[in-house]
Design a protein that fits this description.
seven-stranded mixed β-sheet, seven-stranded antiparallel β-sheet, mainly beta, 239 residues, single chain, Jelly Rolls
């Protein structure tokens, strides 16, 4: 088993006033050669956007972009004709492919919106751009793994152009789970603790810590307090 630990307070920190972003991997003005990616997981940004502010229309291409709101509502618009509100409990995915233009704004007039922005390098280039958004059932992650993303269009959750699986769990204190990798030969798992404290294969993690694990088939998970944890299983080799 191989691991890499990213404590919460070692992440890149960008505070623009209206936007406060924590970067697990190099992004924009945060450039850390030792933190370029975890396999095909390229970006994990923990963003807080002030009320009535946001990201104006901007382009993307050849990237799978996943947004997971943690608090508040996010308004999305794009050049594919989508105008949607993404709320806590939703997950959004865009396959940028040949190119998209979109904007994201805090839809709350009186409080910040907090969300994860995740980029995964796809296994296909120049695909037709695509948008999808679903609402997750909170009960499906209570003391069990809830698959929220996969490579398969007909599976649970959203799907992307990559052999990746995301799972979410909300664990009560002292609860245990086992995560069996879908492709242990090629994939690793980046674990991100959203809330609380947990131990993964004996490694203690606290809120907003990240742990990358590979060359392993199974993860043993224990909640040291009430905890919410995101598991991102991705190929370790770049395409």
């Amino acid at each position: 088993m191989k691991t890499i630990l990213h404590k919460a307070d070692t992440r890149g920190d960008a505070n623009h006033g209206w936007l406060h972003s924590k970067h697990s991997f190099s992004f924009a003005n945060y450039n850390n050669p030792e933190r370029m990616n975890f396999g095909v997981l390229r970006v994990l940004n923990d963003d807080t956007v002030s009320e009535k502010r946001g990201f104006g229309t901007h382009p993307h291409r050849d990237m799978e972009i996943i947004s997971i709101p943690l608090e508040g509502d996010l308004k999305h618009q794009d050049n594919m004709g989508n105008t949607t509100i993404i709320k806590e409990g939703d997950i959004q995915v865009m396959s940028a492919g040949t190119g998209i233009m979109h904007s994201e704004y805090n839809n709350n007039p009186d409080r910040p919106v907090k969300f994860l922005q995740i980029w995964v390098i796809p296994n296909q280039q120049s695909v037709e751009p695509r948008y999808d958004q679903i609402t997750l059932a909170p009960s499906d992650s209570k003391n069990k793994l809830q698959q929220i993303l996969s490579p398969n269009e007909n599976d649970s959750g959203v799907w992307i152009h990559q052999d990746a699986w995301f799972n979410l769990t909300t664990l009560d204190k002292n609860k245990n789970l086992t995560y069996d990798l879908n492709d242990a030969e090629n994939n690793g798992v980046y674990i991100f603790v959203l809330e609380g404290d947990a131990s993964i294969n004996g490694q203690t993690l606290n809120k907003r810590d990240g742990l990358g694990v590979w060359d392993v088939e199974t993860l043993d998970i224990k909640a040291d307090s009430d905890a919410k944890i995101l598991f991102m299983e991705v190929p370790m080799q770049l395409n």
